[in-house]
Specification:
heterotrimer, A alpha+beta (about 350), B mainly alpha (about 280), C mainly alpha (about 290), A: about 350 residues, alpha+beta, Rossmann fold, 5-stranded antiparallel beta sheet, 18 strands, C: about 290 residues, mainly alpha, MetI-like fold, 12 helices
């Protein structure tokens, strides 16, 4: 188990710089999730750790040693791919043992290690099958097994669950987390799915356009997003972000840091009707209701022309209808204030 | 499936008529393709007298005399054997060279990749005698003239470009993530090629080998220019029957049928591969 | 990815392509280079080896025989390619419409393609024989002929074209059938829902999607027919009276019968340039179509 550290790393293809000034420290044994929209260079970052992408400048340290010029084979890491990348011509057994065999491990060890991993992941019945005879979930388990068997210094995951159906995804999410907790192997996990990020990561690094926007534990990202990007990215449905005046009107002056800033309020923190201790934010007209059964999303437009989303319980079914006007309120301690030009969180 | 259903749904009377025409035309083309081979086969089974009958006989007493005569024809047997050897060497050589080259072109960074591509296309499309005539003297000087290996080597000028195109397109169908996975597992390029790429593209290898074999087996111009007696191929063996064509149709047609048979067996056994190879060659070439 | 593999693989990439480079250098670069040099000499395979400048080229361009050989070659290539493309493509369209499994049909039609050119030539001599051949007998049933086929200057070229059509039409057929089969179903179904006729669908939807493939097949057939050797060598040998002499048989005769290696190589160089120009022109046509689409 070793730690992984990026020191001022940049990556460019020709003249196009896709990553710049990347500083990130993945601690020993930590489960780090890289999350961000597509094109944010999170996969490129992961592939630089693997040695599949070269590093244009800066240093990549693995276990305290500079690893920029090590080949993938020399890094002793393993990786699980989105497409699983199982070797189609080999049985499950040969897929699992491939890495050991090319490293000339003695056959007895190979055999016992395959048995150990097959046992852990419940692959015993499948050892003689070819990848094309496996279901998506089984293929995913084989890919995990192939990553585990060499007892690598780090696991890398590149969107490993995005080819699975919803139910299986929830199950595998749990299994991967569980496996990592038992093995305590340093792990970097790339995903675009914030639910995976929030539920699996010890810490999360949110990336956008080749830069890290914020690194922190899941609750920190949710409660204290450092900028409007993270505020909008983490949380579903996304946080309402608007000019203070558009949200509060004249009441903006009464709120701390309210003047001239961008304010954020999560849909679950906007309240319908007046509640004690809440600041009224005026009336708004219901445009549309998305009824999800256990909860409902109410989309509104307020008198200042701003659009807001409120998340509420399903109980409003039949009580509130499109076209009606509601009065909204919020608790000031749930407000997030950002500089309206830089998007940075105001202290 | 849906396309076919939609077509049948659309079938009016006019459609039925034109469908009938499609069957008739296809039938006529099958006849056109088969008849010459059928006819030559019958000529080869005719006695000398029946073969020269006028008008030509449709019904006759078949005889194997022509084939037996051919069997005792030492030169023809020898050229047939030569072709088997040269085809085997030529195909083995082409695959041995084309497999690593195709892998490097598809999955590695090579400077001057385009230049190699242009070179391959040129080698493929330029006329045989452009290469053969200058090689004649070099081959005599180096001792490659009239040898199996020398001829098989010269055939690479044509089969190598074709093999590299075909294998490249088969290799390209493999998910590049598989390379990366193998590389992370510690495999070298050579191990990735031999333990994953080659086993994964065996049908493609077969298609390439079959097409190369057919081409080498049937080639005439290069063999004519670079062999004399020891390494003469079956196409040259057959050419020797050309002179007395009018006199001895029996031996000539029997020799033709025997030269066709190996390729016919190939065609039946590897039809899908051949079709795939030909189509890929055209689409990607 | 490729850029990462550069630092990982460039040394081994060299070893991967080295055998190919060596073999191609030996079998193509050397002969083309040496041949080009020889085309400026009067070499006769023996001791006569003098630099003659452009004499071989000048003599060729002033030689009526050379031009007649060039004309024969182009006439053969143009007619054989045109007929094979039309027939093969039309057959592919018809077979594509059949509602039965077509594997066997395809295998049977592919048969001529497996036969070597020299065998095709000898087979055709048996069938085209003016007195005993089956073809004269068959066309006689319809009140035609008899024709001398290879024996007369007027019919010899047409006979060779017919033989090439029998031999190579299947190539066009196989590739165009594969092309038709690989077309996406949705545009055709959408057009059918819009009420388009089968002819409209073929002409305005399928054909434009197949245009590039069709031109590729034309290029392959054009190059292949320009290089024709086997079937001329095996049938007429260029006769009667040079009526069917094509470039490759002409060069074979010049080099191996008359020992005029300089002249033979000069012919090959000029002919190679012609092939290059024709294929570049066809490729330009292909590219222009792709830009327009």
């Amino acid at each position: 188990m070793r730690d992984i550290r990026f020191l001022d790393v940049a990556k460019s293809y020709g003249d196009v710089e896709v990553i710049s000034g990347l500083d990130l420290h993945v601690h020993e044994g930590e489960f780090m999730v890289l999350v961000g929209p597509s094109g944010c260079a999170k996969s490129t970052t992961l592939r630089m750790i693997a040695g599949l992408e070269s590093i244009s400048s800066g240093d990549l340290m693995i276990g305290g040693e500079r690893a920029n010029h090590l080949s993938p084979a020399q890094r002793n890491i393993s990786m699980v791919f989105q497409s699983y990348a199982l070797f189609p011509n080999m049985s499950v057994r040969d897929n699992l043992s491939f890495g050991l065999r090319v490293r000339k491990t003695d056959p007895a060890t190979v055999k016992s290690e395959v048995a150990r991993v097959a046992d852990t992941l419940g692959l015993g019945e499948l050892l003689d099958r070819k990848p094309r005879q496996l279901s998506g979930g089984q293929a995913q388990r084989v890919a995990l097994g192939r990553a585990m068997i060499r007892r690598p210094d780090a696991f890398l995951f590149d969107e490993p669950l995005s080819n699975l159906d919803a139910e299986l995804r929830v199950q595998m999410r749990g299994e991967i987390s569980e496996m990592q907790r038992q093995l305590t192997t340093t792990t970097v996990y790339v995903t675009h799915d914030q639910v995976e990020a929030m539920t699996m990561g010890d810490r999360i690094a949110v990336m956008n356009r080749g830069r890290i926007m914020q690194v922190g534990v899941p609750t920190e990202l949710y409660e204290r997003p450092r900028n409007t990007f993270v505020a909008g990215f983490i949380g579903s449905p996304r946080m309402n972000l608007l000019d203070a005046e558009d949200l509060l009107g004249d009441a903006a002056a009464t709120v701390d840091r309210g003047r001239g800033s961008t304010l954020g309020i999560r849909p679950e923190h906007l309240l319908i009707g007046l509640t004690e201790g809440a600041v009224p934010v005026g009336e708004a007209r219901v445009n549309r209701i998305e009824d999800l059964g256990h909860e409902a999303l109410v989309h509104l437009g307020n008198v200042r022309g701003a659009h807001l989303t409120v998340r509420t319980s399903g109980d409003i079914r039949g009580v509130v209808r499109a076209g009606e006007t509601l009065s909204l309120a919020l608790r000031p301690d749930r407000l997030h204030a950002f500089d309206s030009t830089t998007g940075e969180r105001l202290p | 499936m849906t396309a076919r259903t939609a077509l049948q749904f659309h079938d009016g009377r006019g459609q039925g008529l034109s469908r009938a025409w499609a069957y008739a035309f296809t039938g006529a083309m099958i006849l056109f393709s088969l008849f010459p081979v059928y006819w030559v086969l019958t000529v080869s089974l005719k006695s000398r007298r029946d073969g020269l009958a006028s008008p030509p006989l449709w019904i006759f007493d078949p005889t194997t005399a022509n084939y037996l005569k051919l069997w005792s024809h030492e030169t023809f047997k020898y050229t047939f054997l030569n072709s088997v050897i040269i085809t085997a060497i030529g195909v083995a050589l082409s695959l041995a060279i084309a497999i690593p080259t195709a892998y490097a072109i598809v999955r590695m960074k090579i400077r001057g990749r385009n230049l190699v591509g242009v070179w391959l296309i040129l080698a493929y499309m330029l006329p045989e005698f452009l290469f053969v005539i200058p090689m004649f003297s070099l081959y005599q000087w180096t001792g490659l003239y009239d040898t199996h290996v020398g001829l098989a080597l010269m055939y690479q000028v044509h089969v190598l470009p074709l093999s590299i195109w075909l294998l490249s397109s088969f290799f390209r169908e493999i998910n590049p993530a598989i390379d990366e996975a193998a590389r992370i597992e510690g495999a070298s390029n050579w191990q990735i090629l031999t333990r994953i790429y080659v086993p994964c593209t065996l049908p493609g290898m077969a298609a390439t080998a079959v097409l190369n074999a057919i081409w080498i087996w049937n080639e005439l111009a290069i063999a004519l220019g670079l062999t004399f007696s020891r390494a003469e191929t079956v196409t040259l063996g057959i050419t020797s029957f050309r002179g007395y064509a009018a006199l001895d149709w029996g031996a000539m047609t029997a020799a033709s049928i025997i030269a066709i048979v190996p390729m016919l067996l190939f065609a039946v056994a590897a039809q899908k591969h051949i079709v795939k190879g030909l189509s890929l060659g055209a689409v990607k070439g | 990815m490729t850029s990462a593999l550069r630092c990982l693989g460039s040394a081994s990439a060299f070893w991967f392509v080295l055998p190919c480079l060596l073999v191609l250098a030996f079998t193509s670069v050397y002969p083309v280079g040496f041949g080009l040099a020889v085309s400026f000499t009067n070499w006769n395979w023996g001791n006569q080896f003098e630099f003659v400048g452009w004499a071989n080229y000048a003599n060729l361009l002033a030689d009526a025989e050379f031009w007649s050989v060039m004309r024969n070659t182009v006439v053969f290539a143009a007619s054989a390619t045109a007929i094979e493309i039309a027939l093969g493509f039309y057959l592919a369209v018809q077979v594509d419409r059949l509602a039965i499994r077509t594997d066997l049909i395809r295998a049977v039609i592919m048969l001529p393609l497996m036969v070597s050119g020299i065998v095709v030539a000898l087979m055709s001599k048996v069938m085209f024989d003016p007195f005993l051949g089956i073809i004269n007998h068959l066309i006689g049933v319809f009140g035609l002929g008899p024709s001398a086929f290879y024996g007369a200057a007027e019919t010899a070229m047409a006979s060779i074209v017919a033989v090439d059509v029998w031999w190579q039409t299947a190539f066009v057929f196989i590739i165009m059938l594969a092309g038709l089969r690989s077309l996406p179903a949705e545009p055709v179904e959408a057009a059918r829902v819009e009420g388009a006729s089968e002819f409209t669908i073929f002409w305005f939807i399928k054909l434009p999607m197949l245009r590039s493939l069709l031109i590729t097949v034309v290029i392959i057939r054009a190059i292949d027919t320009l290089k024709v050797f086997d079937i001329v060598f095996g049938t007429t040998g260029g006769g009667p009276a040079l009526a069917t002499e094509v470039v490759q048989t002409f060069v074979y005769r010049t080099a191996y019968s008359y020992q005029q290696i300089g002249k033979a190589m000069a012919t090959m160089i000029l002919f190679s340039l012609l092939i290059l120009v024709i294929s570049l022109a066809l490729q330009a046509l292909q590219r222009r179509g792709e830009d327009a689409a």
